[in-house]
Amino acid sequence: MEERQDEVLLGKEVKRWPVELAEALLASPLSWGPPTYALGIGYVDDPQLEDQSDGFIQLAMCVDSAYDRHGEAGQWANPILRQVKAEAPYEELSTQDLLDVVFLSWRGERFCDGLIRQREPLLRAILQEVVRRIRSDAPPVFIVQKSDTTENR
User: What is the top-level taxon of the source organism (predicted)?
Assistant: First the structure.
């Protein structure tokens, strides 16, 4: 039986997945999420403290089409997040699926302020696994999408 290749579809205009950025995010203890704001309360986290939210957003945006692959994004991602939380093996998950969870968590921050900070330990575990895979003898293949823009003549 032929083993299926681990492929990841990159976002449009992304030439390569920035493993160095992932390693820098993992190496720093600074939070990945922006300061949490609760309506009627104000900031839950000190907005003056430094964080890595810009780097995390840049990394999350490198993957594209997660909504196309997973219609009910939250329902699809939750079992993976539970699996990571339980520290169950997740080798059977594709690198695309792991990075889709990162992307969908970033997008979920728009609707649930503080989501990235809440999920950060799980997201760190996911990125550690992705980096491990990239640095392995059989790394995933990253597929560059072509831009939708065409010249009008």
Answer: Bacteria
Sign of CA dihedral 4, 9, 15, 17: negative
For 142-153, how does the pLDDT look when each residue is reduced to its tens digit (9 = 90+)?
998 876 654 433
Interior angle at CA 121, CA 139 and CA 101, nearest 5: 55
Bridge partners of 64, per DSSP, are none
d(CA 79, CA 15): 30
Query: CA 75, 30, 74: angle at the middle one, nearest 5?
Result: 5
- A 10 A CB-CB count for 17 gives 21
CA 92 to chain centre: 18
Cβ pair 26, 71 in contact under 8 A: no
**How far is it, in rounded angstroms, from Cα 52 to Cα 140?**
26
CA distance 9 to 7: 7
Determine the Cα–Cα distance for residues 120 and 22; give it in Å rounded to an integer. 13
Q: Where are the domains of the chain?
A: 15-29+51-143
Handedness of CA 66, 69, 71, 74 (dihedral sign): negative
